[in-house]
Amino acid sequence: MAAVVEHPISPEVENSTMGSQLDALNQWVMDVARVTQPDRIQWCDGSDSEFAELVRGMEADGTLLPLNSETHPESWLHRSHPDDVARVEHLTFVCTSEREDAGPNNHWMSPADAHAKMDALFAGCMRGRTMYVIPYCMGPIDSPLARCGVEITDSPYVVANMRIMTRMGAAALARIEREGRFVKGLHSIGELDPERRFIMHFPEELTIQSYGSGYGGNALLGKKCHALRIASHQARSEGWLAEHMLILGVENPQGQTHYIAAAFPSACGKTNLAMLIPPEGYRNEGWKVWTVGDDICWMRPGPDGRLYAINPEAGFFGVAPGTSEKSNPNALATIQRNTIFTNVGLTDDGQPWWEGLDDRKPAFDWRGNAYDCNGPAAHPNARFTVSARQCPSWSPKAEDAQGVPISAIVFGGRRASLVPLVFEARDWKHGVLVGAAMGSETTAAATGAVGVMRRDPMAMKPFCGYNFADYFAHWLSFDKPGAQLPKIFHVNWFRKGEDGKFLWPGFGENLRVLEWMIERVEGRASATDTPIGALPKIGDIRLDGVALSDEARRVLFDFDRAGWQAEVDSLASFLDEFGTRVPVALKNEQARIAAELRNG
Ligand code: GDP
Ligand code: PGA
Ligand code: MN
Ligand code: MN
Predict the structure, then answer these.
(1) Assigned CATH for 243-314+396-599
(2) What is the residue with the minimal CA distance to atom 22 of ligand 1?
(3) Architecture field, domain 315-390
(4) Which residues hold substrate (predicted)?
(5) Per-residue pLDDT tens over the stretch 285-305
(6) Residue list, ligand 1 pocket, CB within 6 Å
(7) Which of 35, 48, 242, 481 can pair with 235 through a Cys bridge, CB separation 3.0 to 4.6 Å?
């Protein structure tokens, strides 16, 4: 900001009470105000009265529509600008001083060019608006793994969502003042013009600048921008991992709980798996699943060598379409009250509605037009924002400052063909390659074509704040003496049959696969070794009572050698895109598997 022409500042802003004991923070807030020229500054304390006041304002100007207060108390619908409905990967940049440090996996701009571009966009952009200052903490407020930031925004919708998604307000500010260090995030909705929209990350400056979008992943800066892109960069230098993973606990009938972290690309089943309800037979036996997180996982080695994980978020920003009493009853129970819905349809009695919920017909589509039954009523990336504490399966351990010990890491994506239901990596190094090799069909969570296969290593393609080659090396570095690393698995809930329908029932039935993983961790379940890893045979996974077609039984557990040869060959060219920076150990691992596939 320093190079920018300083504008005179309105007396009201000049005299606004500084909310902080930290000079560096006050200074930054005033620097931003000089550039953006807001009419008012409001330091957010996270209180109920502050939230109520914000909501009143948004109801008055139509930003939030109150929903039916009998069926959905304290809940609202927000209709976004129709061009502002998803993350914008083509407008998202990592601005490191060296281009190579961002890697071919990121769009790059030099910090100087990016600052010049953003300063021009931000100049005077908050005239007539209130500038909100949001101190927030990612992770339990007393956790050594948690990190803080401050987001400045001119959007009350962002403030309301940040209050749900993070520990926001006075306690976070106190921690920031104690630590003296925080990630600086500056956001303005600007004109919501896709031509004037950029999401910029300056990992070396612990700074984020986002302009022109109000959509969650672009605008709630604690989430993807801080907790993944900036945090992954910090985690590399500090020896931990910031990952696009859900965290869940599986409690067996003996009362023992294993924690599992799983990375699937956006809209590929994280929230659903995190809130899984066991099939009836398992419930009767006493199995329980506990939700710790549904999108982001920060983990680091503990004193016993195991990886300990926290969920840096305090809420869920979940995909609405497909959420139903049948697919995800926990999510449905969670969003009955105190929820902000974005871009869903609306019934004639003011209830939120989306495809897959039930067979009612909504009266309005997500744009607010009378619903004419052409196309979906809810946008395919319609979302709900809700506090995690409302989730019936919310784990008491989710607030634990030390985090939960991870027994298994799972990678997975949408793969219509080739990839079996589940397999296990032979060791950590192989597991890192399995993660690096991940591929998935694109979804509506980002703008662009849907259903196109692309490589998405560890589901971090849109989120890794540095060069993937260095990221793979960082993953490999956890394998050292004294480490008690989790086993690594790969799953595919999305294999399709010849009729184009999913072969695996998914959702609650996925527990059967998790049970097998846990038994593998405990050394009890059997599997068959193949070049791609250990595969269960049909009898190794409990399938009592699951209706599976003959085709499903044959295909879901099958290892297609010829198909995998092509897959693993194409992996070699993918790794080559990262040049000589790719760890030799990873290339050797690819070569080992390719050779085994040829020689077997
Ligand atoms: P996230 O964005 O990774 O958290 O994904 P969600 O859990 O929100 O799921 C995205 C979409 O995939 C929703 O429409 C879900 O209904 C669907 N989905 C989730 N899990 C499964 C599954 O096990 N099988 C199938 N067929 N669909 C699933
Ligand atoms: P998702 O989160 O992974 O639950 O879709 C939002 C996103 O990744 O954009
Ligand atoms: Mn996500
Ligand atoms: Mn999700």
Answers:
(1) 3.90.228.20
(2) 506
(3) Beta Complex (2.170)
(4) 87, 215-217, 266, 381-383
(5) 999 999 999 999 999 999 999
(6) 264, 266-272, 294, 318-319, 321-322, 327, 493-494, 502, 506-507, 510
(7) 242
